[in-house]
Design a protein that fits this description.
This protein has eleven helices and 15 strands. With 366 residues, it is α/β, with parallel strands linked by helices. The strands form four sheets. A seven-stranded mixed sheet has the order 3-2-1-6-7-14-15, sandwiched between helices. The protein has a four-stranded parallel sheet with strand order 9-10-8-13, sandwiched between helices. The longest helix is centred in the middle third of the chain and has 22 residues. The chain is elongated, with a radius of gyration of 22 Å. It starts with 7 loop residues before the first strand and ends in an 11-residue tail after the last helix. Bound molecules: 6-O-phosphono-beta-D-fructofuranose. 6-O-phosphono-beta-D-fructofuranose binds next to strand 12.
């Protein structure tokens, strides 16, 4: 076994940023350096490996001794567009640029890559490894918490905390003005953030893509809240929830990328119409990604980083570190990507919400 041989590990963050990435990078750098290995930071994910001169820098424990671990974002930069296997070129065509990445990994003398990303990034890095690039170990991160084979991912806890705090701040103003406050949260196609924050933040209605609602049931719940003597109501809606006639709310950005956004405004109008109550919307957006990481995210990121280095030492590649039953384990990346994790309508958390009288808009109010 080559366990004592010095190694050169590349590390990158890929996909949307979230809180806890820097804590994970720090853990990898500390742990690998302790073994006498070198860690090379790849700037802006795989984007830095396109072209002639890779944009990289050696990472040392010293630069992580101060503020970095406490900061949101990623000191390495990241990107959530430009799939190198289908890269958009300036002339509007698409090109497979994976060869450039594989060549640059070899040029840099990397023994492996530790990739911190979501399911899309894991799939891309895995393809590089299979096509002759360097082997990889994955660390799951996403505020959406939709990666399979792990109970949680870096960034989710912080996003839920931020959304919960938003409800804490919306409640007094809702009560002061007799209003229905609608909080739209991120999560892409999974309703985990809305569900968790809705319970923790005392919502009356939680709307998630996994549970079909009717405006009638939502309106009945809000009216009931009011007839029972409370002058405000809180509604949390996940960005991917569709309109009653099944249309997603999307925003097309200047670069042509489509993203969810704005469904809260639809519910504001519909709820006002159906109940006669005044409603206001807050679209929380990227605030959920930018906060300093919670202690949970720092712990998870640190444990994931240390475990990832351990896997490299053992030569266990094509694996993703994961959190299961109070343990850090490793799972096949293939399985993690295949087992997309949406909210299970029969899960403990959905039952908890129902037990608290929270409506998902799918049933008549008791
Ligand atoms: O996947 C993370 C996420 O924040 C989603 O919840 C959201 O839909 C999307 O990324 C936003 O992407 P962007 O940063 O490109 O606006």
């Amino acid at each position: 076994m080559n366990q004592k041989k010095s190694k050169r590990i590349g590390i990158l963050t890929s996909g949307g940023d979230c809180a806890g990435l820097n804590a994970a990078i720090r853990a990898v750098v500390h742990s690998a350096t302790h073994k006498g290995w070198e860690v090379i930071g790849l700037i802006d994910g795989t984007a830095c490996l396109l072209g002639e001169e890779p944009d990289v820098r050696t990472l040392t424990p010293a630069e992580f001794d101060g503020t970095v671990m406490r900061m949101g974002g990623t000191i390495l930069g990241t990107t959530n567009k430009g799939d190198p296997f289908h890269f958009p070129m300036p002339d509007g065509t698409f090109k497979d640029r994976s060869g450039e990445i594989i060549n640059n990994c070899k040029k840099l003398g990397l023994d492996c890559i530790i990739g911190i990303g979501g399911d899309g990034s894991h799939a891309i890095l895995r393809r590089f490894a299979q096509q002759g690039g360097v082997p990889m170990v994955g660390i799951p991160k996403t505020i959406d918490n939709d990666i399979g084979e792990t109970e949680t991912s870096i960034g989710f806890d912080t996003a839920v905390s931020v959304a919960t705090e938003a409800l804490d701040r919306l409640q007094p103003t809702a009560a002061s003005h007799d209003r229905v406050m609608i909080l739209e949260v991120m999560g892409r196609d999974a309703g985990h953030i809305a569900l968790a924050a809705g319970i923790a933040g005392g919502a009356d209605v939680i709307l998630i893509p996994e549970i079909k609602y009717s405006i009638e049931h939502i309106a009945a719940k809000i009216k009931k809240v009011k007839t029972k003597g409370r002058n405000f109501a809180l509604v949390v809606v996940s960005e991917a929830v569709k309109t009653a006639d099944d249309k997603p709310y999307m925003v097309t950005h200047t670069d042509g990328q489509k993203r969810y956004g704005g469904i809260g405004n639809y519910f504001s109008e519909e709820i006002s119409k159906a109940t006669g109550f005044e409603a206001r919307v807050t679209v929380l957006g990227h605030v959920q990604r930018g906060s300093p990481p919670t202690y949970n995210d720092r712990l998870l990121a640190t444990a994931f980083g240390v475990k990832a280095v351990e896997l490299v030492e053992q030569g266990k590649f094509d694996r993703m570190v994961a959190w299961k039953n109070r343990e850090i384990v490793d799972v096949a990346i293939e399985d993690a990507i295949a087992a997309y994790q949406e909210v299970d309508p029969d899960s403990t958390m959905v039952k908890t919400a129902r037990g608290m009288g929270i409506s998902f808009g799918d049933k008549p109010t008791d």
